[in-house]
Amino acid sequence: MTDSFEPVDVCLLMEGSYPYVAGGVSTWTHDLIKAHADLTFHVVALVADRSRRKLAYELPPNVKGLSHVYLQDPDPGWPWVPGAAGLLDRIEPPLKRLQQGGGLEEVEEIVRLLAPKRRRVGRRILLNSEDAFRMVVRLCRETLPDASFLEYFWGSRALMSGLFATMLAPMPSAKVYHAISTGYAGLFAARARLETGRPALLTEHGIYTNERRIEILMAEWLFEGGDTSLVVERKKRDLRDLWLDTFASYSKACYDACDRIITLYGGNQEFQKRQGADPNKLKIVPNGIDYAGYSKVQRDTSDRPPTIALIGRVVPIKDVKTYIRAAGILREDIPDLKAMILGPLEEDPGYVEECRTIVKHLGLEQTVIFAGRVKLTDWLGKVDAIALTSVSEAQPLVILEAGASGVPTVATDVGSCAELLLGRADEDPPLGPGGAITPLASPLETARELRALLLDRPWRERCAEAIRQRVARYYDKVEIDRIYRAIYDEHIAMPTRPTLAERAA
Fold first, then answer.
1. Lowest mean per-residue pLDDT among 107-121, 159-173, 209-223
2. Peptide bond preceding 429 in cis form (omega within 30 of 0)
3. Nearest-angstrom CA–CA distance, 450 and 33
4. How far apart are CA 141 and CA 136, in angstroms?
5. What is the pLDDT of residues 38-87, one digit of tens each?
6. Fewest CB within 10 A of the end CB: N or C in the chain?
7. Distance (Å, rounded) from C-alpha 505 to C-alpha 493?
8. pTM for this entry
9. How many CA atoms are closer than 13 Å to the CA of 244, on its beta-carbon side?
């Protein structure tokens, strides 16, 4: 199946997630494929490099192909191609504009320039040649004259590597192309729309540019000079601006190319509008979960310690450290507390080790338990409340899954967490809180709200019933699957538009 290019109904474009990384978006994708078993799918996995990877999910039988885009290791291509210097000269202007807030017009120009030479050009010419080096020198002087050239060289090289890998990768044949984020996946969707004339769809769980902004501002390898994070006015454009502007350009290109732009809740949609998405293309489709399945989870009523859980990957964006510190505070009042961490440990081993060090420093070895990836339905009946301490989320499935099982949540005020726990604006009649909302990075507030749920049983039961009813009313996957099927059917039936090649002829 790998690298098979059998024509399919839907081509899914996945960056850094399915089918190799377990998590909310990957699980959503896996369930989407299974829900439409009579449609055929091809998965394009956009990954960093050519390292061997183990599937985190068994691909359903209706996945007919799995191909890869190696963002930091494009194919080498020929060592020499006639007209290579001229090609780079023509690529330079749209590339420069992409680094400064361009969009679909620039992507179209690069696609048009690379298409005739796609089987021949690769990293040898586009990244490693003398002509490519001279292009980078000029771009540095024109776009970031105050930056260290060495830092610009490696930073821009990483960006250009991802761009060229996405532009040069083989194109699966599909009736619809569906990106599950902007970024490089969205860039591939824009290219697919231009080259094939078939419709492109986008589903944004989290706003990619916002999540990238958090990662980039936290990235030590992009650090230049003194810390400017608290400076009111920063006059000089630096390497972080280069990355942020480039990914904003990719988002614009994706928004303009896609026929439908879907997200999970109104707050995300406002971000999309501010970033230039056409309001006429926008649609809200919330995440759904298997309510029938999760609602069957039986509560463990045995004499056991009060138990909380953080469910998710142990990575910085989940802020597991705040959860651990909250558990330390909570244990002062509940000595026999068990604080479970239920989620994959392999994605960021360095961060996992930092978390383990905090556990040891606080003397929580008997309280905080790293269980790794688990079957959630085996655990939810033993958990009294869950905590979500993330610094960025969209619409977390774990709140819905726990809620359907009758488990309330304490969550940070990110994404749609407040809407999930406190109720939608159109909720009629109001169901009441299904837990509590806390500020970011606040172990004390997190511990306080968890303590209220653990020690006040009537309050915990009211919250549990409210979130259970809310999930049943608004977030049952049966209805969500129906909505997505209607979207797929509509766009599969659309006529093919003129391709880039046909318009150029």
1. 209-223
2. yes
3. 36
4. 9
5. 999 999 999 999 999 999 999 999 999 999 999 999 999 999 999 999 99
6. C
7. 26
8. 0.82
9. 16
